[in-house]
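User:
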Amino acid sequence: MTKHLKTEMVRGTGIGSRCAVGKLRFLHTSVQKSHQMGRGIEEERARLRNAISSVTQNLAYLQENAKARVGAEAAEIFAIHAMLLEDEDLLERIELSLANGSSAEAAVQSASDALTQELAALNDPYLSARAADIGDVCSQLIAELSGRSEFSRQSTEEPYILVARDLTPSQTVGLDRTTLLGFVTFEGSPNSHTAILARAMGIPALVG
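Assistant: Predicted structure:
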């Protein structure tokens, strides 16, 4: 008796010239948007300042780590992300939400959503990639503010291909290459910083 297995073709844009074959591991992430009111504007401002300082330090660490692994040019991605934490447009939007009584988490989320939607609506590949950078940085801020890890890596001894909705540059540079064969993301583009890192790290990838 012949058993027929149902298969589906996944189409996307390949990153680099390498390929990989292996078992799939799915990364399930749930983003809980925060809409709660703040505990006072000065307290929320102080929380935001502390979070920005912590994320800036972490980005500096990621830059040094990436420099050792993939070279200085690719590592500049994290310097660009640190600069986004000083972006006047982003900070003004956050401050407006804080002034209206939002928590720091809600203010960052609101500013991130508005900016990324505006950039994505322009239908420009470069600006869409920058929208992803803003979303990445803001996700790190929210994770710091809420006291939770933005990305929990599941350890495994078996080689695998990672499947995710999307991966941020900070997640990508932290991937364990001893078992990772490659990754597939349903979102993303070949112009994204994640794609740039994947090429530099020699990771076979399929995006979009």
